[in-house]
Amino acid sequence: MQKKKRKYIDLNEDYRSPSDDINDDRVDLLSNLPDHLLIHILSLVDIKTARRTSILSKRWTGLWTDLMDLDFDDFETTATIEYKSYAQPEMDKFVVWVNHIIASNRAPYLGTFRIHFPLNGLYAAHMENWLKFAFVKKVRNLELNFYNLQLNFVYSYSRNIHFQKSFLNTTLESLHLKSVSVERHFLQWVITNCLNLQNLSFHHCDDASSKHRLKIVISSLKLKNLEFFKCLKLLKIDALHLSAPNLTSFIYNESELDVKYRSVPSLVNVTFGGSYCHHLKALSGFSSQLEKLSIVWDDGTNYANRDPSRSWFNSVPINSRFPTFVNVQQLEITSSQKDVYLLSVMSLIEACPLMHTFKLKLMCRKQREGPRSSLAANKTQFKIIWHLKTVEYLGYTGCSFASELALCLTRLAPMLRRFIFDTRQPQFVGKAM
């Protein structure tokens, strides 16, 4: 019996002549590569595609079970999450798929374990098993995002996921949690025991079982990036003390808390949102070391401006509203408000005398204008912005506030070279549509 010729994968197929015989005796070079290279190739595609390679030949059977990076992020889910609700059968199907993949995995350890899918508390037991699997595999990078677009609905079915301390290990380098209910003291335990942690992010996390307030002390020699986004209040935390000599980036979008900066000599990039924008003077102790400053003005940030008698910006002279950020090169302001006040924006711009890039993100499609006379009446008070070279607007729809600010900047910035007007909503920029 004639031996079957092995189907080959031609790495140079683009350069073959049409007259070449596809049934020649050339070998399958790709399948002859060692396992670790084939596994690396599989790591470049999504898990579903990697799993399908088992049908290519016996050589490929089961190779996908040795993957050390497990990313359960469905592109279609990510692209439609804001417009589509997921029924329980779809959640069940996703959970079954994840359970099958992790039950088949033979890797000695995990580099990355990532799950992005809208799940509620009904699946808490499965979530705990996934975390146990990741920690037993000594995961280095862990990311969980369960979305919780309708928080009231989700929390009504939720219970805390219990992160057992025995599962945590010193290999953990990055931890990103979004819309996850965790047990009390988990945050402090991670900071204290995960000695190699470099990146920590908590978004919309809560502790539904806790009723008592606590103080968190973040003391870490290796922590470089720290994010808290609308979760500390839900976690019943009312004080935060930072002592991280290698911390370079800090994102803080929270309601008012007692924040103490004990030691942050390397901090150069900060983002503040929520009511914290009213307390930028707390940065005066290290304002000179910052290189990038981002401010988020949302509906809860500028509430005082709606009542001039309570306005924080009107309570102090214009030249002393902010500390001076003498080394800030980039300033970014994100506004989700319908009310935007030019004097507030210009005051912050003037506090950054060496700024060369200014970016304005307008998240609200319909802007409700502040007093039109505010800028005209005070334009002689503003200083020349000598170093500004680039201005970028995202979400620009022609509102009078942004237009008037643009005119002001062009008059005050003699070195201005680029002015970009982008009508796309900022949250969609950089995403496939």
TrEMBL record:
Domain F-box: 27-75
Domain of life according to the entry: Eukaryota
Any Pfam family the entry gives: LRR_At1g61320_AtMIF1
Protein name: F-box domain-containing protein
